[in-house]
Amino acid sequence: MSPRALSLSIAFVLVLAAWNTPQPLTTSAPQADASSSAAPSAATIPAPSSAAYLAGLALLAPSPSSSAPIPLSPRAVDALNRSLRSAVSQVAYMPHRVVEDMFVLAAADGDAPLDDAAELTRKTLDALYSGPLRHKPEDATLVWICTKATFAKYLHMYAPDEPTSDIGVYFPDVHVIVVDTAKATGLSLSHEITHVLVRADMPLAPLWLEEGISSLFEAPRFDADGTIHGRAHFRLQTLRDALASPKTAPEVRLDTLFALATPESFREGGKEYLHYAESREAMRWLDSRHQLWAFYTKWRRDVLDDPSGAASFASVVGKSPSDATADWVAWLQSDEAKQ
Ligand SMILES: [Zn+2]
């Protein structure tokens, strides 16, 4: 994987497919108990009420209007418009959709589900900007919506050495996303879109937080109140397998996650897959307690004084990451976490 790209691998799709099929997991769940290897039920996580969601935000918001996106400065508007014109000019000759003047989605071939991708992008933006996010990007992002026939070609336009086992790649330096909708049925799109939004909203966020929130929306659920949540999928099983092994169980800790201060530590050899799972399931646990966005917005506000995020976490959760680990691990192994 290119060090300047953020990607999802094919393993995501294979195991997500397993979660979404009515057969038990086999190869990915050898050490989990029988109940945890079953596909998740059709039931969903009880939706946090609008009141609870807004109450979480209000923890940091002195007035309801303070959670609205901050308008871009005239300079930033000018930069965004120039960036948008540049992105559109690259795809003017092919089917494309502009979403909220931030994303230019282009169909790499005639089978690419352009309208579905535009709808998913729009819903993700609506949910996040009517909720926790306040800062919009100053650059438009070009999103290539590919199928199996075109993914490798478009991916290698930006990263000749990038493995085609990836299903979605975000190139932040050139503001480009390439997604393979054939493999990911479009779901990697929300992950990559969220990368762009979190980077704009909290530039000092460590990679583990960015990946945690982005991967939370790999399997998004949009509730009637306009909020977005993440459904259980293979990353939960990754942690259950890790917990079942004496060798890896000690690593499944919240304080370990909060110590991943650098991209290098997140990608540490052999553990990146575990770190993705820990970050996603930590975010999903917080969301299940209606504390995710209170934690996020507090950390965003205090990031200079609290670069690790541990103090913000403790303020919202009432326990340090170390002390909360037992509660988190108990949730990971609960039926509630499978929803
Ligand atoms: Zn990512």
Residue runs with pLDDT of under 50 for 5 or more positions? 10-65
Which band does the percent of strand residues land in?
5-15%
**Gap between N and C termini, in Å?**
31 Å
Main pleated-sheet profile: 6 strands, mixed
Question: Major sheet: order of its strands?
Answer: 1-5-6-4-3-2
Shape: globular
Percent range of helical residues? 40-55%
User: How many domains is the backbone divided into?
Assistant: 1
Radius of gyration: 19 Å
Taken in chain order, the helices and strands follow as: EHHHEEHEHEEHHHEEHHHHHHH
Ligands, ions, cofactors:
zinc ion
Count up the helices. Answer: 15
SS-based structural class? alpha/beta
Mean model confidence by pLDDT: 83
Can you put this structure into words, describing what you see?
The protein is of the alpha/beta class. The protein has one domain. Helix content is 47%, strand content 11%. The chain is built from 15 helices and eight strands. The chain has a six-stranded mixed beta sheet, sandwiched between helices. A hairpin with a 5-residue loop joins strand 7 and strand 8. Helix 7 runs antiparallel to helix 8, helix 9 crosses helix 12 and helix 13 crosses helix 14. It starts with 5 loop residues before the first strand and ends in a 7-residue tail after the last helix. About 17% of the residues have low confidence. The site of zinc ion (ZN) has 5 residues, from helix 7 and helix 8.
